[in-house]
Amino acid sequence: MLPDGYELRPLRQGDSAALAAAYRRNREHLAPWDPARPERFFTDEGHAEEVAKQLEATAEDRRHAFVLWYGDVVAGRVNIDNIVRGVLQSCTLGYWLDHEHLGKGLATEMVAFAVERAREIGLHRVEAGTLLHNTRSQAVLQRAGFEEFGVAENLLFIAGKWQDHVLFQRILHDEPLGNPQTSTIVQEP
Questions:
Q1: Which listed residue, 33, 61, 87, 144, has the most CB atoms within 10 A of its CB?
Q2: Coiled-coil intervals in this record (predicted)?
Q3: How far apart are CA 182 and CA 168, in angstroms?
Q4: Where are the domains of the chain?
Q5: What percent of the chain shows pLDDT beyond 70?
């Protein structure tokens, strides 16, 4: 449960200016964990384009994006990304918090929320990766029931170079494909 004053809700086009402000405010804080971003990303106009792309991906069931609000200020994000249907029914999870909102259990709550949402949309498995030295994020994932399952060498181009990541997963259920409670897939006869 989120502390008083916080709200987690789906991304909306009208969120773009507040998101751009949050990224500007957290630029230095997020730099070690994020890919290099063009200057336009940090502008209101550039972020409006970014949000439009993300909403298109949501409409196509490739992503589900959520924004953590504290009043009228963006305090973080959590995304269900890279959704693969078919026999995999899997996704990846990403999240970040504003530097002024760390240490309140918010990341764990956001991850738990996203895991439940992934289950609701019929996914079977959620995967997340962290940089090797990001022990705080690793602890968040472990508190949310994720299990470490390996290291991927040179997985993502972060902070200007290819970097290794510790991989985590959470299996959401063991129901067969076609179960109306866990999947929208109908098995072939």
A1: 144
A2: none
A3: 21
A4: 6-171
A5: 94
CA–CA separation, 173 and 75 (whole Å): 31
What are phi and psi for residue 73, nearest 5 degrees? -115, 135
Between these two residues, 2 and 110, which has the higher pLDDT value? 110
* CATH number, span 6-171: 3.40.630.30
* pTM listed for this prediction: 0.89
Q: How far apart are CA 78 and CA 96, in angstroms?
A: 7
CA angle 23, 24, 26 (to 5 degrees): 65
Q: Are 139 and 148 in contact (CB under 8 A)?
A: no
Q: What is the pLDDT of residue 166?
A: 98
Q: What is the DSSP letter of 12?
A: -
Q: Stretch 109-119: mean pLDDT, rounded?
A: 97
pLDDT at 44: 97
> CA torsion, points 111, 11, 28, 104, in degrees to nearest 10?
-40
Distance separating alpha carbons of residues 4 and 1, to the nearest angstrom:
9
SS3 43: coil
Q: How far apart are CA 141 and CA 147, in angstroms?
A: 8
Over the stretch 99-110, which tens digit does the pLDDT of each residue have? 999 999 999 999
> CA dist 164 to 80, 92, 101, Å?
21, 16, 27
